[in-house]
Write a structure and sequence with these properties.
The protein is an alpha/beta fold. It has a single domain, classed as Vaccinia Virus protein VP39 (Rossmann fold, 3-Layer(aba) Sandwich), CATH 3.40.50.150. 24% of the residues lie in helices and 28% in strands. α3 links the parallel β3 and β4. α1 packs across α3. The longest helix has 12 residues. The protein is globular and about 50 Å long.
Length: 194
């Protein structure tokens, strides 16, 4: 990785959760490169420096409940699982059934039962019946800020999502008002909702 995370907790998560456990065999030789890597079905395992940036913006704390939308191979779910620890909970959701099953198996091998990946319900963004969440991470690009995710965000919660190429950090204040800030430009696969 060319640009290691500055936050020591994020660095520890990267050291504890090896990217190689979340890549197809043909991509393993590229695991140390700071590039997104294909995992099939038009999906990618995100660029490590981008993941580090997103985790820094998300500011995950031990014991929090986190939703990971577009969990893919499960790498970000496992990293989040390390950050929340055994008193927290991470729910990863992935729309592509084959990738969801593979991601779930990858995360299960990490022996952090408080972090799981499940198949997303078609037409449903996130997991409304399991919210609210203290943090929501979206690893796919949206055309707008999805209201259905804001509805799953707890008061004082944070949503990090790429919207039209810009990384947004959205804080939800008590009473439901939100405040968004932009943090650079990034490229992601599109967020699918069906």
């Amino acid at each position: 990785m060319k640009r290691p995370p500055v936050d020591p907790r994020i660095l520890a998560a990267f050291e504890a959760v090896d990217r190689t456990g979340f890549l197809p065999p043909e991509q393993l030789r590229f695991a140390d490169q700071d590039h997104p890597l294909p995992i099939g079905h038009g999906q990618t395992n995100s660029q490590p420096s981008t993941v580090a940036d997103m985790l820094a913006l998300l500011d995950v704390q031990p014991g929090q409940r986190v939703l990971d939308v577009g969990a893919g191979s499960g790498w970000t779910t496992a990293l989040l699982g390390h950050l929340v620890g055994p008193t927290g909970r991470v729910v990863g959701v992935e729309l592509v059934p084959e990738i969801a099953r593979w991601g779930a198996a990858n995360v299960a091998r990490q022996h952090r039962p408080w972090a799981t990946v499940q198949e997303a319900e078609p037409g449903v963004l996130g997991v409304p019946d399991q919210g609210p969440f203290d943090r929501i991470l979206v690893s796919a690009e949206s055309d707008d800020v999805p209201e259905e995710l804001l509805d799953q965000l707890a008061d004082d919660g944070i949503l990090v999502i790429p919207v039209r190429g810009r990384m947004l950090r959205i804080e939800r204040h008590p009473g439901g008002t939100t405040e968004a800030t932009a943090h650079g430009t990034y490229s992601f696969v599109p967020l699918l909702r069906t």
